[in-house]
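Data card: per-record layout.
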Amino acid sequence: MTVLSPNGGETWHVGETIRIRWRMDVAGQAVLLYISPNDGEDWYVINADRSVFTADTNWADYGWTIPAAINSVSLVATTCRVRVSEYLQTTVTDASDSAFTIEAAATVRASAPLRRRAEPAGGQVLFDLSGRQVPPPAGRARSWTSHLRLLLRQAHE
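The structure for this 157-residue chain is written out next.
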């Protein structure tokens, strides 16, 4: 078992979706994924609702949207690691080689405050602080940046 990503040095934000990737060189049926916010002292199961099975489309490449906390423990830390363990053969396991950082959710400050969160499919959706979705880029706006500039310009007209 080898954790490929995140493997240390990365910086992520609460609300972002990261790809947990691994390689398993022995026969296995399913894995459990863990996060440690304190350099491996304590581990919390990421996929507690269901193991990832070899037949699943997300086998060896699991998308996980980072919550602010697990079991009331904050994940905002500079000493985070992930661990992947075979479900039945718990000695078949590996963790990130070094720590990575999870920071508080990134926000965009504008005249109409926006916050960003990732969709499960990996795309981005913007929401204002009241929870209303900002429409995606269309027409003249080809990127979120140009789309936001256009929206702000329209709001000031």
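Known properties of this structure: The longest strand covers residues 77-86. The chain has two domains: 2-103, 107-156.

See the next section for split statistics.
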